[in-house]
Amino acid sequence: MQLSRTARIALRVAAGLGFAIIYVPLALVLVNSFNPDRSASWPPPGLTFHWWSVAWENEGARAALWVSVKAGLGATAIALVLGTLIAFAVARHRFFGRDAISFVVVLPIALPGIVTGIALNSAFGTVLEPLGVGLGLFTVIVGHATFCIVVVFNNVVARLRRTSGSYEEAAMDLGADTFRAFVDITFPLVRSALLAGGLLAFALSFDEIVVTTFTAGPGIETLPIWIFNNMTRPQQAPVVNVVAAVLVLLSVIPIYVAQRLSADTAAESRI
Amino acid sequence: MTTTAQAAGRSPVRRLAGTLHRHPRLRLSLLLTAPLLWLAVLYLGSLAVLFVSAFWTTNSFTSEVVKVWSTDNFHALFTTPVFRQVILRSIGVALAVTVLCAVIAFPVAFYTARIAKPKWRPLLVVAILTPLWASYLVKVYAWRLILSQGGLADWMLKPFGMSGPGFGLLAAVIALTYLWLPYMILPIHTALEQLPASLLDASADLGGRPARTFRSVVLPMVLPSVAAGSVFTFSLSLGDYITVQIVGGKTQLIGNLVYSNIELNLPMAAALGTVPVVVIVLYLLAMRRTGALSSL
Predict the structure, then answer these.
(1) pTM, two decimal places
(2) Which of A53, A186, A251, B213 is the right S-S partner for B133, CB 3.0 to 4.6 Å?
(3) B173 touches chain A (CB under 8 A)
């Protein structure tokens, strides 16, 4: 299609505007963390590092970050195990209800978070409370793992479908048993898919707020919950600004790692 | 080598490996037991109980759940004006966000897929993907900063004698559009990138001007991808209640209604919660007809 000069220029301008829409808000969050003022009025009256040092000392934000990391690691570990198990079952076996399993795996992320949240909340209430187990970090991890399984599953199943089972068969012909073939052949083949899936699962858990709201016990505050609770308090606004800026900066890490791992697996599975 | 293999052959581990190898059904059940307990029993079980509880009622004095079967909640859903209004508003917001995303995404995707120099394209895809990794809450917070009084929006519109929209329904639509935009750009980008140049040349050879080629060749081939992207923009917008709480002012969407009913009337909250689920399923079924789901 030979587009006219005007059309090309118009598309360039429109795309430029599109990218501006995507990046101006993120840039604003970064700039605003240096805003000496407590209000978000633009332009800021000056720039200061003051709030960064205040935020560094903030106990609440630190504690919340730590809770988020623990919840993310726990959920990722469970999701890695369960997601990989399902991926092997689906990719290497034929059985009744195989399609249904792929569907159930996606469900926790496809349904609105609030539906998953209240479902788990009332289930925990009826099952765990009589046992004397209240809501806490443990229930957050269970909730997060439920919707993190899908990203691990997607990554691993895609890798397994691309690598045929003949490598394992060859290993077994050479005398390796099932476990040996897994350790020497299968695991190295899926390792980077596991890494990509684990990274995505952690990112998903680290960012989650809705399911967390309904599964966290009193006193358990993840970083998103902390931001949400402090966002509307003028006293805390500068610290929230800094935490938000740090999160924007941190989002570069998974992008970098995902690019290093293999651009296509990570990019596809985020969707 | 042979001797070690034979020695290993008698070891319990080796014997277990052999048993597993000879019994694929056993292997399969070992693989699936734990995940199925988690997903089918814990998750689907909770969902089922929630759905059933939508048919229960609450004692209006004690807020205790009364486990007596009744369809009152669903009846209230369709007859209470506030509920009807909020449901329609939520669907309207989800559709508006979807249309806005498609309108903004198309030129961006067209540029990244067909106009930008090929060596820049992978980098541009990364540039589209990056915001997906930035925190959801931070992105909504960014719009809270932009739209707050005296914020960036006010400052930019001041020279034209206008002020920003402030917090409200429009702000919620803008923030939701911003959140889900990459989910629309990516599938369109992929579709446009895979569009064979020969088809465009053929259309031109047959006398098609760019506008005609766009309408008769490009659009029909990209439409399934737009539909695929719309599944994300639509369903993610419909289930959202946090964004509305942050920038929506007093605006209420379905999610907010669910949230505000949980404490006092869980059965009603459950009934309200089925609305987005049913709407999303209907939307998925409608989109499946366009072939969108196979390209997900």
Answers:
(1) 0.87
(2) A251
(3) no
